[in-house]
């Protein structure tokens, strides 16, 4: 993952050390030696991540962080505070200033890269999310802004730890914000994970029984849990286990004895990332749906139907199977709008669409073709079957009256239908045009009827 990282520290050797370490891992590093310079750099060309020293003359790191987080140009950039080892209060103050994470000096390589990677992954998700949101709102679909905090509060965590004291300590912290399930046994935990939707799994690497690393590896292997963030709790003396864990792909770690603030921050980061990821996926499906369906009726839209019909006709050419198409149009629909208003008109369109949906087979494709005009594409269907379907649909509309959504108005609705079947070497436009001619004939002949156009010139 290549990224631009801004390193800020007033002590030149500190900057140089971090720069050297990060450059080895192919990050692009920029440097600043005081707060104002850092801010200017960040405003002018926002980096992907900022490593920010706390103790600096003029403007300290807390102030720099506050300003970064207040400005919309830079608020989304993750900030890692670099604090002196002993200062626990610095951490709290850093978090209050809006820092996303912290590292203690002297900066340990494992911690540095674990945190940098974790925050860069989160930022990638968020950037992608913001981009999609922009596209979606440009298109006038999907509005999500307010759900975020709610979603975070209801995050589900599986805590796997067999140390009673530690379980007690952690659940006390989590219980206020999250739904926590505690499991002491690795096999049970694995079964639990495969069946339900957790947002984060917290695993103690020093669990006495079983092998926690094996569980981590399994979580990464199985499709359904591959994306699940893993936060591990690890004893200071267990560096080897930690290295193995990072190789396997754990998302982050907290050292024992657990610093509560640290646990809170890292938990939140992982959950945020997971939830952004889930929402991206969800929105992707949603926008796919929105792109192909009509919002009023839920039927396919015209563009989708035409593409699909074209593909069907291509296939039909090869296997000589007929494709039938019917176009139906509500009779005197303008009267409904004029007499009862547009909302009642919309209700009728919805009711009409759902009767079509019920009346056709699963392989048939029903679409809203225009205002009160609908098309049904029937693969592998000859004209006699298609005209039978048309007649059945016509009756389903005419035989039972429609109600508006308030249940106040009852309306008798009829429709006219034109139906035809594909001929060899025909494209979608030609086929639809012939069905439309049949529909026109049905209207002309008195409406509430089906007209069949065989496509045979002699007929
Ligand atoms: P015909 O029997 O010849 O089809 O007559 P008609 O009144 O159904 O046809 P016309 O084309 O004159 O009018 C169709 C009307 O449908 C006009 C348009 O305002 C209305 N309409 C189109 N789309 C919608 C919609 O989404 N909702 C509502 N309520 N009305 C719509
Ligand atoms: Mg009409």
TrEMBL record:
It holds the Pfam family GGDEF. Residues 321-455 form the GGDEF domain. Signal peptide: none annotated. The keyword Transmembrane helix does not apply. It is an enzyme of class 2 (transferase). SUPFAM superfamilies: CheY-like (SSF52172), Nucleotide cyclase (SSF55073). This is diguanylate cyclase. It comes from Sneathiella marina.
């Amino acid at each position: 993952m290549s990224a631009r990282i801004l390193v800020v520290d007033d002590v030149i050797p500190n900057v140089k050390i971090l720069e050297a370490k990060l450059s080895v891992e192919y990050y692009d590093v920029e440097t600043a030696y005081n707060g104002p310079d850092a801010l200017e750099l960040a405003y002018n060309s926002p980096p992907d991540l900022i490593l920010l020293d706390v103790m600096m003359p003029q403007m300290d790191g807390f102030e720099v962080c506050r300003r970064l987080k207040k400005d919309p140009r830079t608020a989304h950039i993750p900030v890692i505070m670099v604090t002196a080892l002993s200062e626990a209060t610095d951490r709290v103050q850093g978090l209050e200033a809006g820092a996303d994470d912290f590292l203690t000096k002297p900066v340990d390589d494992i911690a540095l890269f674990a945190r940098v990677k974790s925050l860069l992954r989160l930022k990638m998700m968020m950037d992608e999310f913001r981009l999609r949101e922009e596209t979606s709102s440009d298109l006038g679909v999907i509005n999500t802004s307010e759900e975020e905090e709610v979603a975070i509060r209801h995050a589900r965590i599986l805590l796997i730890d067999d140390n009673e004291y530690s379980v007690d300590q952690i659940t006390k912290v989590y219980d206020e914000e999250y739904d926590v399930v505690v499991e002491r046994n690795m096999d049970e935990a694995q079964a639990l994970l495969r069946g339900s939707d957790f947002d984060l799994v917290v695993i103690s690497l020093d669990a006495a029984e079983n092998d926690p690393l094996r569980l981590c590896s399994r979580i990464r292997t199985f499709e359904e849990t591959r994306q699940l963030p893993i936060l591990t709790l690890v004893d200071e003396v267990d560096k080897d286990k930690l290295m193995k864990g990072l190789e396997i792909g754990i998302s982050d770690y907290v050292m024992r004895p657990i610093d509560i603030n640290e646990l809170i921050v890292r938990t939140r980061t992982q959950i945020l990332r997971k939830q952004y990821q889930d929402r991206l996926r969800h929105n992707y499906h949603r926008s796919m749906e929105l792109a192909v369906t009509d919002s009023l009726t839920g039927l396919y839209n015209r563009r989708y139907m035409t593409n699909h019909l074209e593909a069907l006709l291509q296939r039909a050419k090869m296997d000589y199977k007929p494709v039938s198409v019917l176009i139906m149009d509500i009779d005197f629909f303008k009267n409904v709008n004029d007499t009862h208003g547009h909302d009642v008109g919309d209700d009728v369109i919805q009711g009409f669409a759902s009767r079509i949906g019920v009346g056709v087979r699963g392989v048939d494709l029903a679409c809203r073709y225009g205002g009160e005009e609908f098309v049904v594409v029937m693969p592998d269907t000859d004209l006699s079957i298609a005209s039978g379907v048309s007649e059945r649909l016509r009756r389903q509309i005419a035989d039972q009256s429609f109600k508006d959504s308030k249940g106040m108005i009852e309306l008798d609705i009829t429709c006219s239908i034109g139906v035809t079947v594909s001929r060899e070497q025909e494209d979608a436009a030609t086929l639809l045009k012939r069905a439309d001619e049949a529909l026109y004939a049905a209207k002309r002949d008195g409406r509430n009827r089906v007209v069949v156009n065989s496509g045979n010139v002699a007929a």
